[in-house]
Design goal:
449 residues; alpha+beta; FAD/NAD(P)-binding domain; D-Amino Acid Oxidase, Chain A, domain 2; 3 domains; eight-stranded mixed β-sheet; five-stranded parallel β-sheet; 13 helices; 21 strands; globular
């Protein structure tokens, strides 16, 4: 694809920002990524991403997109020690959703390689993507650099660049751009910037889960855990859950979390006690036998948040928003990186038609994958009385069909496989309404609902 612009600037070297930079590299002569953190040389947690100390999920669809944008990246993660699920063996995944333990025996009824899951730590994944992005001759990453403001034309119709300053200097300078992409996370300042220019703020949706989680990195004994992931979601009457996620080099992360203000303790022994009532003993025995790496870390996310830029009637040219700066989810569903990857694909498609009306086209294109992930996450969250948010008529009546689906997923390989594809954002939720799936739901031996 030929260049559609001279200079693009991405604000933020998060996974979402790096994916945006990768796509922009095909369409702009030069791409500059501005990051306020001092970036580590390798796989390490950086100051501006404290959530990197906690489990991260790369959903199946996210893996597909990463390997499309960076051929061979997934194999590189495996070479660097990231565990891989590519044999369809259900026993290697322990997934408990709303009190229902998903199928635990046999092989998944789909192409195992196509539906593979990869389990790198967030620092390893981010460092690997960053190194791939830096390998592009026309991409430059400026770390330890603050964005002071966006600059605009006199009529406020176009963003023309950014004013930046390095932390070690009081002086600032202007960096011109044909396109600026804000990927600075859920606290991004674009809404305030738009309001100041007279565009108003985007409508925001919030579902207040008040999620708090505490994670303890571990060094586990080789082959001490058969499962690659243990994922126990909240259940009716229990606004709490846990993760035990394997990563590279026999490391793992043990996490306990609560929603609705239910805060877990930040002490390993107390964390184990917190999870004991709803976690099979064998998993906690693995945690007890592991070697703690450092101390537990606490992280809070007040709400799922969607800034609906696609609803704005006016928007300046030369500006886009990406990643958590548009939408961030309750992290227990692991959707964030995959939705950022879907946004990068939307940007790639939109750039094929040039820069004219880009913001309108891009925000409309991103709204579809965001809305699917949003419905999947918030429908589950809103089943809990501790969650604050508008409950649609569909959500109010949706719990019984969902309960039926999850019950059948305990034993039915075909339904479980389709549910796995939907939750991995590979297939749309409508696939659960296929006649073949509906028949299996209706005729399952589970008739207690």
């Amino acid at each position: 694809m030929g260049a559609v612009g001279r200079q693009a600037v991405v604000l933020g070297a998060s996974v979402g920002g790096l994916l945006a930079a990768r796509v922009l590299a095909d369409s702009f002569a030069s791409v500059t990524v501005i990051e306020r953190d001092v970036l580590p040389d390798g796989a390490a947690t950086r100051r501006g991403a404290p959530q990197a100390r906690h489990p991260h999920a790369l959903l199946t669809k996210g893996g597909h997109i990463l390997d499309q944008l960076f051929p061979g990246l997934l194999g590189e993660l495996v070479d660097r020690g990231a565990p891989l699920w590519d044999d369809g063996d259900w026993s290697k995944l322990y997934m408990s959703i709303a009190g229902h333990v998903m199928l635990r025996q046999g092989r998944a009824a789909f192409d195992h390689k196509q539906m593979a899951l990869y389990f790198p730590s967030r620092p390893l994944l981010e460092a690997t993507i960053r190194r791939r992005v830096e390998a592009f001759d026309n991409v430059h990453i400026l770390d330890d650099t603050e964005v002071a403001d966006l600059t605009v034309t006199a009529d406020h119709r176009r963003v023309t660049g950014v004013t930046v300053a390095r932390d070690d200097s009081a002086a600032s300078h202007h960096l011109g751009a044909d396109l600026v992409v804000d990927a600075m996370g859920r606290s991004a300042h674009t809404p305030a910037f738009l309001d100041k220019l007279g565009y108003g703020r985007p409508e925001e949706l919030h579902v207040k889960t008040r999620t708090c989680y505490v994670s303890q990195p571990l060094k586990i004994k080789p082959n001490s855990l058969h499962e690659l992931i243990v994922n126990i979601h909240p259940a009716p009457g229990r606004p709490a859950g846990m993760f035990l996620t394997t990563n590279e080099n026999d490391t793992a992360i043990f996490t306990v979390f609560g929603i609705g203000g239910n805060e877990p303790p930040a002490d390993l022994r107390a964390m184990i006690d917190y999870a004991e009532k709803y976690t099979p003993a064998g998993f906690l025995n693995t945690v007890r036998a592991a070697e703690p790496i450092g101390n537990p870390h606490r992280y809070r996310v007040p709400s799922s948040q969607w800034r609906r830029y696609h609803k704005m009637r006016r928007f300046p040219d030369g500006l886009l928003v990406s990643g958590d700066a548009i939408c961030s989810f309750n992290p227990i569903y692991g959707q964030g990186m995959t939705v950022s990857a879907l946004q990068a694909l939307a940007l790639q498609d939109c750039l094929h038609k040039g820069l004219d009306n880009l913001a309108h086209r891009y925000f409309r294109a991103t709204a579809k994958p965001i809305s699917i992930a949003w419905r999947l996450a918030t429908t589950s969250d809103l089943q809990f009385p501790e969650t604050e948010g508008a409950r649609s008529a569909t959500a109010r009546i949706g719990s019984k069909p969902t309960e039926r689906l999850l019950t059948v997923c305990e034993t039915d390989a075909v339904v479980a496989a389709q549910f796995f594809k939907v939750s991995g954002l590979v297939d749309p939720p409508t696939r659960l309404l296929k006649p073949s799936i509906v028949r299996r739901l209706a005729t399952s031996r589970h008739q207690n609902l």
